[in-house]
Amino acid sequence: MSEQRIRARYLIHTAMRAEQAAEFIAGEQSTGTFTRVPGETAELRQRHGARVESVQENGDSASEVELSWPLSNMGPSLPNLLAAVSGNLWEMKQFSRLRLLDLQLPDAFLDRYGGPQFGVAGTRRLCNVSMCTAGR
């Protein structure tokens, strides 16, 4: 059985090389710390660190990056999910702009929360909201 992973895709604007920026986010949002923590091994970082899945440069300092985290880091916990995929990213001076574009969750979240009842289209219809295209 393959490992279940949470995947997040971001649009980033940075002066850094796209690959370097993706690695920075992966470290910051998983195993990265200012100093080494006692007991933190290379094997532990390899097993629990976020992984850069793809990097696509769009030009003009804009890139799309996709990261993933092992579900075992947080379980199907919404607060832990939010901390992992966003945390303090929007405060980082390395990025002039950063947007979370997409989030893919393993079945464990559906099993835990039993939704979505109406799906994306139904929720938009109930809220009388159409898809937001601002900033594209």
Secondary structure blueprint with pairings:
Layout lengths: L4 E10 L3 H11 L13 H7 L2 E9 L2 E9 L7 H8 L9 E10 L2 H7 L5 H9 L9
Antiparallel strand pairs: 1-3, 1-4, 2-3
Tell me about this structure.
The protein has 136 residues and is of the alpha+beta class. Helices cover 31% and strands 28% of the residues. It has helices at 18-28, 42-48, 78-85, 107-113, 119-127, and strands at residues 5-14, 51-59, 62-70, 95-104. The protein has a four-stranded antiparallel β-sheet with strand order 2-3-1-4. Strand 2 and strand 3 form a beta hairpin.
Give keywords.
136 residues, 4-stranded antiparallel sheet, 4 strands, 31% helix
Written as H for each helix and E for each strand, in order along the chain, the element string is EHHEEHEHH
Give me the number of helical elements: 5
**Measured on Cα atoms, how large is the radius of gyration?**
16 Å
Strand order of the largest sheet: 2-3-1-4
Measure the end-to-end span. Answer: 38 Å
Sheet/helix structural class? alpha+beta
Largest sheet: number of strands, sense, barrel closure: 4 strands, antiparallel
Mean pLDDT: 85
List unreliable stretches of 5+ residues: none
Tally of extended strands?
4
What coarse outline follows from CA principal-axis ratios? globular
Helix % is: 25-40%
In terms of DSSP E residues, the strand content is 25-35%
